[in-house]
Amino acid sequence: MFHLVLGVCLAMAADQCGQVLLPQGDSATAQGCRTQAAQVADAWLAARPELTGSAPECRANADLPALDLQQVARGVHVHFGDSHQMEETPDGRIANLGVIIGRDAVAVIDAGVSRAQAQDLYVAIRRITDLPVQHLILTHMHPDHVLGAQVLSEVGARITAHHALPQALQARAAGYLDALVGLYPAPDWIGTQVVMPDDLVDDRRQIDLGDRSLLLRAWPAAHTDSDLTVLDRRTNTLFTGDLLFRDLTPVVDGSLLGWLEWLDSDPARGAGLIVPGHGPASESWADASAPQTALLKALATATRRAIQDGLPLSQAVPAIANALQPMQNSWNSYPETVARNATAAYKELEWE
């Protein structure tokens, strides 16, 4: 396969440049790609007046960068992200991303942190299958999972998410994009735009890929207020999104009590393999979830103690962090997250 690649720069800052892959220009041959290159590139740039472009090029799939995809079950592939907070990484590529290949179509689970990462994901997908990518499922609204969605949309995928995701993402979209630009060089973010889902899940929904079906389930507020899990029924592989963290310190951005309730509800019942939002996959729910459960329960206990002691938020946060200090060596990016979690827990539990 040949892909259409376009060099682009910011119209107002010509030294801020990078490359974008335009899936609409894909072709089985170099000539087929070149025939449509100018038309595809001009149409794409016309919708983005903030960018200028150079002459488009057609490149073989093998000549482009691609994410590493590991097959974890039959037809199920995962890119495992760097289990640190975005600020500690060179490109923000911290989330686990999934690819499930059916008889008739492909579903992608989460799109990564930028257009650049999603392009590399798409190139990797095309190295293992030519089937149409018909579905992109977003597990929640955090930037490391959603900001690459436009690439998959351009491929032709319908975007499916929790019913609460549009409002949550819209409220944070500008901040997410500003953070991306502030953290990384232009090649890592140029062309990245926020897109909203096409389909929303209120409770449960099934997606048929031909010889396998995916069960999507929307959950009450826990890690965030837009958490969605995906179960591949054929292999019993469960993608939890960030409802499950491994290695990277869990972030409370929804409801601590709701998250603990989710963990206690045996959400992985029947799953043979659990793929968390961050960290390695596991065949054992007990082994995978125990460290996170212990940390969140300790957070709740320490927060309730601070509230009972009458500490104001300014004093409670360091007291809670100090109480949790024995657990810090078990988690990456712990110092960057513990104060935020303590603040969120205090604001929720002071009204119990």
TrEMBL record:
Gene Ontology molecular-function annotations: hydrolase activity
InterPro entries: Metallo-B-lactamas (IPR001279), NDM-1-like (IPR050855), RibonucZ/Hydroxyglut_hydro (IPR036866), SoxH-rel_PQQ_2 (IPR030829)
The keyword Hydrolase belongs to this UniProt entry's keyword annotation: yes
Pfam families assigned: Lactamase_B (PF00753)
Domain Metallo-beta-lactamase: 94-278
Protein's UniProt keywords contain Hydrolase: yes
GO-annotated biological processes: antibiotic catabolic process
Keywords: Hydrolase
UniProt family annotation: Belongs to the metallo-beta-lactamase superfamily. Class-B beta-lactamase family.
Name of the featured protein: Quinoprotein relay system zinc metallohydrolase 2
Organism (species): Paracoccus haeundaensis
